[in-house]
Amino acid sequence: MADLLPPRLCCILRVTQPYFICLMRKKFYRQKKDFLTIIAPNKEIIRLVVAAVELIKRVDKMEYKKLPERLKIIFVTNRFGFTNEFFMPEKIWFANKSVILKNDVNWLASLIIHEAYHATQFKKGKYILPLSRLESAAMKIQKNFLRKLGESGNDANIAWAGGYDKKMIEDKISFGYFRNLLDLFKEDKLNFILIK
Fold first, then answer.
1. How far apart are CA 168 and CA 41, in angstroms?
2. The whole model's pTM is what?
C-alpha cells in the first residue's frame, strides 16, 4: 500500500518503511558551537541558533556556564509549525523550523534557556515534578533572561496567551517525527553536511 502513496505522504506516515527511507535521504547541516551540536535543514537556521547562543554568552554568563550540563544538541527539523520537545536523558531539544524562523534572536535565546532548564527537572530516569508543573519553573528562568535584555518578563507569557500550547497539542505528527528522528540519529542513519 505504501508504494502507491505519493512520496510526500510517505514522509508523514510513521508506520511505513518509506517514511524511514524518506527521512534517511534528507540532508541536515551540522555544526559544533563550543559544547553544543546544532543540526538543521539549512545554514540560515544554524546561523540563527548560533546567534542566540552567542547572545546568552554575552548577556548571562552564569546561565551560559550551565548550558553544557543541560543541553548537548539542538535539532531543528524541516517541518513547519511551533512544536518542540526536550528529550532526556539525551539532552536533545527538537524544534520545528518555524520556532526558529518566526521568532527573533532574543526570544530564541530565552527559549533555549527555558528548554535546557528542563534537564534540571529530570532525575533517575524520570521528571521530578508532574508534567503540568514543569513549565512554570522553566518560564521563570526564561522571563529572567528576557528582563536582562530589557524586555518585559511578560513576553514569556505571550506564546501561551497566543495559543502556542494549543497549537502544540493539536500537532499530532511532530512528536512522533521527533522520536523517529531521535531513533535514526542514535542509529547513525541520518545524512549530515558538516559546517566548520
1. 21
2. 0.82
